[in-house]
User: Which sequence fits this backbone?
């Protein structure tokens, strides 16, 4: 590139154009234009995406005008902190805690994938655990019968999951919601009965055991548990990554753009909504199969309880408590239920009642489960606040200090005070005589008292100010209120019709008097 | 089907025999519409007058025409014809501009770029929906962007730039304030840190297609119904801007931001917005001083002659320091030409007499009706009387939205506005046919351009201006037409456009010129013509209030567009920014004629003194009126009260009123024939007469609040009769045109149209 020149007096931009007067710039704020600029701030992205790790909002502080940088979405930070805690805490606890944590991580993985099915694809399948079961049974059977190693079991799991997925997906095209859920419960039960009765699946031993394990021979029990836990933890991270990819990428965006109700609309736009749903369902099924393979190598086998109704219900409790639709909710819900189920074993059957109670409470009292409580609370609080303020300003009260800080144009605070003072002085002026005078002669000339009232009415701000609509000139008039916003037509305030402009003018006057007396 | 709607306009307001006039019509909700030529006689439907009067005239255009909707391109912008696609760089490039945003945050706005909205194709530097500077690119499928950090502050000058390295995909946006003591809303004492420089590696490379236009202040968009149009229009000013090849670094950009010129070797285009200025005004072409000469053309009148990033407050006009006046102002709601296809045209036949005509358009269901008015002037003037319709003032008020948008309107008029369906319709449609010089753009700036190449819904018979609840301008002036018709006078009609174009030649053939009810906006050529006409013995009946008030200019190349700047004084709907007081169209100082030492009193003996719309009053004869030199004016008028009636709020004196004032140049031999009875306090003394504020400025307390009926003679047997009141014209039709006001008018016109000395001459 050619060396850059700033030619002092005359940049002489060809064609005899007028020279730019550099000295005119001499007044510029020094920091703004002198010398080199600050180096551009490099904004780093996740590879292959347009997303930056943290969404940072830069804004001027309204009090000091200082530039403030705030993290808009702190969830990535919470995730990192939470996952680190989840990875460390079990290591500090007993063996029982370690194995409970493994179960937790495994269930969390299942639930995260389930959220994809329910939340993203919008398919109400209750056969989630059943697919895991098929994956577990299938890979365990192959391992026991053909000596499949543990990694082979995990690798073959998705095949079983996919086969299940394809079978279950077919009715999903035809059945909706509740009926489909029932059907999937039936299918799971069928699997359970089969597993319980089948000789090949170990009906006599109450399960199929003896499959390969990923724990190396000869390690201590503690080491084995630690390896298991981390393996399950990695499984959970993988589920999270899968969720992120499917839900965050085009497929998920497509589905979120077209929730069930707008299906027809989406299809009209050329969005193949059904195909996208089925695709998400199949991907999830394969993932559940993989978890099944993992399950079988962790437990070195599978048991019919995988297909049982009570386990499914526990799973349902997990995602309900956390809040259906978010991965955070799935993880927290799983954590609570597993904690109750595995750690407070001494409570006995009472734990199930507690789980049921928490589930009920979260359905009844929260919108979006426990995970949505914080946002729910803040919306509730801001609604209360704005209600209180609306009441206050309706009564013409002074602006509260906490409200004042949020008003950008401080003049409005004064105007509200001033208006109330004016109204206080005007109210006594409203008498029957003044009203009669206006009725007699809406145009004027008017007495000073009436003129004073009218001046106040007439100088009001345009928004919601009264006007008159001539439905038919010299025959039919109605009172309207102006919007004050270009493109928004005025609204008709009532259904009364006036025959002459004078009658309509007086009707407006009466309304204004009424507003004054009521404020 | 939705309610039918018809809107139309003609390419000219004034035509003569042999001329071709084109009508541009847009109709919706109807398959065809019926056209009918009519002569307009009276427009006020007030029950005390003759009501609406029209006369059908046979013409070949009387038939059914196929209807179709025509779209309106709103928003001002500059477009660059770039056939060689210089501005579609395959390699690295840098965009830069000085900007003064006025509405950041109101939707996405393009400052400079080549961007196709519906295709996600090209590149642009602009303001994103959140109000931040953003550079974005699109390859036809995906878009990617990098945005600066803090919000852009409105009405602050910034230097902004974006560079893109096509090899690495690295994009950098730069924003740096360039505010000085004068150029911005805020000064350096405000502790904002305006600067932001952000770099991000984009995943998308800009694609280029030949049919995407390079625009300054907008983006290309296409829809099936509309075809090609421009959207994402910018609000604010843009000063010198350009496109450079290669990535310019911070040091190089800092130098440009301080007023330097980009290195010659890199220039793809560099628009020197200050180039090509002349002493007589600035056109719509913005000159590219780079090697490719890719000049940019303005659409919808981007406002030139505005203060630039380096305005230092010492110079107040682009003629003095063009280099400080590089600002071009854009608005996303500016509209000065609908550019519709003609629906039909009409050749004026020789036998059609001069008058006020309209093409009346009716939808099939007869629920929509539209009048497109025009004037037929005489090809060869023959009549002694000329009615000069103040079309410049019609344009000033064209499509005004005062009663919907101005807080103060009800306080000014002292009545609650009465709206008609058409008002609601237009407002609901977002005032798509553009605004009046009484309105504000979305960013709060006043509207300084108006045009007649668009439907003007308030320049229609029967229309009543909501704010004042009576006809205004065109429909009110039809009361003069009806009076002339009724009285059987031979008259011909002219418009301000004719007077501006032809000067004194337009009115010279007539013995009397009658001006309309509110000739408020006057160009220098119109003033000169009137003055010369009177000096040469012409006779003028000035039936207005508040006439000859604002300095306006019609654009040289587009005489259908008029410009005004409202300055620090006068009854003004807005006020031009500091330093922006001169007309871009001619280089003249705008504002009030009074402040260019040509107060209306110098021309017609009376000038604006007050306004109010609650009640009009009568005149009472003044003692001077009994002098034989002028007593003839009142011949046949009984008593000393004139005009205690009228369609405009019950009197002949009112609405806007003028007074005699020797200190402002009323000819010393003028006579006040009659003066108004006292007004209410809703008639305050005008602001330009108020040196210090004090109470008691209203009509019941201040002696300057009055309408003076003034008469004086000019050289060569010329004379001026001034009614000094808008309400005057609307009093003429009362009682079947048989009334005192009509009688005074008749006496004046009868005397004025006679050749030779005036009556009462000693
Ligand atoms: Fe006016």
Assistant:
């Amino acid at each position: 590139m050619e060396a850059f020149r700033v030619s002092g007096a005359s940049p002489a931009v060809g064609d005899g154009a007028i020279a730019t007067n550099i000295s005119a710039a001499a007044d510029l704020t020094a920091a703004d234009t002198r010398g080199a600029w600050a180096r551009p701030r490099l904004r780093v992205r996740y590879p292959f995406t347009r997303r930056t790790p943290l969404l940072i909002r830069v804004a001027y502080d309204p009090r000091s005008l200082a530039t403030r940088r705030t993290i808009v979405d702190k969830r990535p930070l919470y995730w990192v902190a939470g996952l680190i805690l989840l990875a460390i805490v079990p290591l500090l606890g007993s063996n029982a805690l370690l194995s409970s944590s493994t179960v937790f991580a495994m269930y969390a993985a299942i639930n995260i994938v389930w959220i994809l099915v329910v939340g993203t694809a919008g398919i109400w399948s209750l056969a989630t655990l059943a697919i895991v079961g098929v994956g577990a049974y299938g890979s365990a059977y192959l391992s026991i019968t053909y000596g499949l190693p543990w990694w082979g079991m995990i690798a073959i799991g998705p095949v079983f999951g996919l086969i299940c997925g394809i079978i279950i997906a077919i009715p999903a095209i035809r059945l909706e919601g509740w009926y489909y859920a029932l059907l999937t419960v039936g299918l799971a039960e069928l699997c359970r009965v089969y597993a319980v009765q089948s000789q090949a699946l170990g009906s006599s031993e109450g399960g199929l055991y003896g499959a390969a394990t990923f724990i190396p021979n000869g390690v201590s029990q503690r080491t084995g548990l630690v390896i298991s836990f981390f393996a399950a933890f990695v499984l959970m991270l993988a589920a999270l990554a899968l969720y992120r990819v499917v839900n965050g990428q085009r497929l998920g965006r497509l589905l979120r753009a077209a929730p069930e109700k707008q299906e027809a609309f989406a299809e009209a736009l050329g969005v193949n909504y059904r195909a996208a749903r089925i695709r998400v369902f199949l991907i999830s099924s394969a993932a559940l199969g993989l978890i099944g393979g993992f399950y079988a190598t962790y437990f070195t086998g599978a048991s019919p309880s995988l297909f049982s109704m009570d386990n499914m219900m526990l799973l349902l409790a997990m995602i309900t408590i956390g809040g259906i639709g978010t991965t955070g909710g799935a993880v927290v819900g799983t954590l609570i239920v597993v904690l109750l189920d595995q750690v407070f074993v001494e409570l006995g059957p009472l734990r199930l009642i507690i789980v049921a109670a928490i589930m009920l409470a979260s359905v009844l009292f929260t919108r979006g489960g426990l995970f949505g409580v914080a946002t729910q609370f803040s919306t509730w609080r801001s609604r209360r606040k704005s209600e209180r303020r609306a009441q206050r300003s309706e009564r013409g009260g002074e602006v509260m200090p906490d409200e004042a800080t949020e008003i950008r144009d401080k003049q409005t605070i004064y105007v509200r005070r001033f208006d109330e003072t004016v109204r206080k002085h005007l109210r006594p002026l409203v008498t029957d005589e003044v009203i009669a005078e206006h009725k007699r002669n809406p145009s004027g000339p008017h007495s000073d008292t009436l003129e004073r009232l009218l001046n106040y009415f007439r100088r009001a701000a345009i928004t919601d100010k009264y006007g008159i609509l001539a439905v038919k000139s010299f025959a039919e008039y109605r009172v309207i209120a102006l919007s004050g916003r270009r493109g928004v037509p005025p609204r008709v305030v009532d259904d009364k019709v006036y025959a002459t402009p004078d009658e309509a003018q007086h009707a407006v006057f009466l309304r204004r008097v009424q507003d004054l007396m009521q404020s | 089907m939705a309610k039918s709607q018809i809107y139309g306009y003609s390419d000219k307001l004034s035509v003569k025999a042999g001329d071709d006039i084109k009508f541009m019509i847009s109709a919706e909700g109807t398959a065809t519409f019926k056209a009918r030529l009519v002569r307009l006689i009276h427009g006020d439907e007030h029950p005390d007058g003759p009501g609406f009067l029209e006369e059908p005239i046979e013409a070949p255009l009387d038939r059914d025409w196929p209807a179709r909707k025509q779209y309106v391109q709103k928003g001002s912008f500059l477009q660059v014809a770039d056939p060689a696609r210089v501005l579609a760089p395959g390699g690295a490039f840098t965009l830069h501009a000085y900007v003064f945003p006025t509405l950041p945050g109101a939707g996405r706005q393009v400052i400079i770029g080549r961007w196709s909205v519906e295709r996600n194709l090209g590149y642009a530097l602009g303001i994103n929906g959140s109000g931040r500077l953003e550079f974005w690119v699109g390859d036809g499928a995906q878009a990617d962007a990098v945005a600066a950090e803090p919000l852009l502050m409105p009405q602050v000058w910034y230097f902004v730039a974006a560079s893109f390295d096509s090899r690495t995909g690295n994009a950098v946006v730069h924003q740096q304030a360039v505010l000085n003591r004068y150029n911005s809303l805020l000064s350096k004492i405000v502790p904002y840190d305006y600067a932001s420089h952000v770099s991000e590696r984009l995943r998308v490379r800009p694609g280029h297609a030949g049919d995407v236009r390079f625009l300054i202040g907008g983006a290309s968009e296409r829809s099936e119904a509309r075809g090609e149009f421009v959207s994402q229009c910018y609000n604010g000013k843009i000063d010198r801007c350009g496109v450079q090849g290669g990535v310019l670094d911070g040091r190089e950009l800092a130098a440009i931001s301080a007023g330097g010129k980009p290195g010659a070797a890199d220039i793809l285009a560099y628009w020197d917005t200050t180039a090509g200025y002349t002493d007589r005004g600035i056109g719509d072409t913005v000159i590219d001083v780079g090697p490719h000469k890719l000049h940019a053309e303005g659409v919808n009148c981007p406002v030139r002659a505005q203060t630039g990033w380096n305005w230092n407050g010492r110079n107040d006009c682009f003629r003095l320091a063009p280099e400080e006046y590089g600002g071009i102002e854009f608005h996303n709601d500016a509209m000065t030409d609908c550019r519709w296809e003609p629906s039909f045209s009409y050749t004026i036949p020789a036998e059609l007499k001069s008058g006020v005509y309209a093409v009346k358009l009716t939808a099939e269901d007869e629920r929509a009706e539209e009048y497109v008015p025009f004037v037929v002037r005489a090809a060869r003037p023959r009549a002694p009387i000329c009615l000069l319709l103040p079309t410049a003032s019609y344009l000033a008020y064209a499509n005004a939205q005062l009663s919907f948008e101005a807080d103060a309107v009800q306080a000014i008029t002292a009545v609650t506005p009465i709206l008609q369906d058409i008002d609601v319709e237009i407002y609901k449609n977002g005032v798509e046919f553009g605004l009046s010089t009484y309105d504000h753009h979305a960013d709060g700036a006043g509207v300084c351009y108006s045009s007649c190449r668009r439907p003007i819904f308030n320049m229609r018979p029967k229309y009543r201006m909501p704010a004042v609840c009576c006809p205004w301008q065109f429909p009110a002036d039809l009361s003069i037409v009806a009076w002339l018709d009724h009285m059987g006078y031979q008259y011909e009609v002219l418009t301000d456009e004719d007077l501006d174009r032809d000067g004194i030649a337009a009115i010279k053939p007539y013995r009397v010129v009658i001006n309309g009810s509110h000739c408020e906006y006057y160009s220098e050529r119109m003033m000169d013509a009137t003055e010369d006409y009177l000096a040469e013995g012409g006779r003028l009946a000035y039936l207005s209030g508040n006439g000859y008030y604002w300095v306006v200019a019609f654009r040289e190349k587009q005489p259908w567009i008029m410009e005004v700047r409202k300055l620090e004084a006068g009854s003004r709907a807005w006020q031009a920014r500091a330093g922006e007081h001169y007309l871009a169209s001619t280089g003249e100082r705008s504002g009030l004629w009074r402040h260019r030492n040509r107060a209306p009193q110098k021309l017609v003996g009376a000038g604006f003194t007050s306004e109010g719309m609650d009640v009009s009053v009568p005149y009472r004869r003044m003692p001077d009126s009994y002098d034989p030199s002028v007593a003839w004016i009142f011949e046949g008028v009984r008593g000393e009260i004139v005009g205690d009636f009228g369609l405009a709020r019950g009197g002949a004196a009112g609405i806007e009123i003028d007074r005699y004032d020797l200190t402002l140049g009323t000819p010393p031999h003028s006579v006040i024939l009659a003066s108004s009875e006292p007004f209410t306090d809703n008639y305050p003394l005008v602001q330009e007469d108020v040196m210090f504020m004090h109470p008691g400025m209203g009509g019941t307390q201040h002696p300057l609040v009055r309408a003076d009926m003034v008469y004086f003679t000019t050289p060569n047997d010329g004379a001026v009769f001034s009614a000094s009141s808008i309400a005057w014209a609307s009093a003429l039709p009362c009682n079947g045109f048989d009334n005192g006001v009509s009688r005074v008018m008749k006496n004046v016109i009868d005397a004025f149209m006679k050749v030779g000395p005036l009556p009462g001459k000693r």
The first strand of chain A starts at residue 41 and ends at 43. The first helix of chain A runs from residue 30 to 33.
